[in-house]
Amino acid sequence: MSQPSKPVSSEDIIGQKYDRCLADFLVKAGVGFSAGVVASVILFKRRTWPIALSTGFGAGAAYADCDRTFNPARVPGVRILPAASEAQPSK
């Protein structure tokens, strides 16, 4: 027999979303930083602006993904439907 599952609290759901957003931010900003360092060393004579620019691009992409996580109505093509009421009998 399967165990009855406990309902997940809203605080846990929001906490999981924040954790995912933070991890996504660290990964994307880190990849942007790394790409900026490589571009700076190879292409731009060790200037610092490619590092700042690519880190900002990574952070901006992470911010946009996090915004879509917390507000799904901002995803293009997504329509939010109201929940069906269980009190209404089906015909």
Automatic annotation (TrEMBL):
The chain crosses the membrane at residues 25-44. InterPro entries: Mic10 (IPR007512). Its main location: mitochondrion. Keywords: Membrane, Mitochondrion, Mitochondrion inner membrane, Transmembrane, Transmembrane helix. Component of the mitochondrial contact site and cristae organizing system (MICOS) complex. Component of the MICOS complex, a large protein complex of the mitochondrial inner membrane that plays crucial roles in the maintenance of crista junctions, inner membrane architecture, and formation of contact sites to the outer membrane. Belongs to the MICOS complex subunit Mic10 family. This is MICOS complex subunit MIC10. The gene is MIC10.
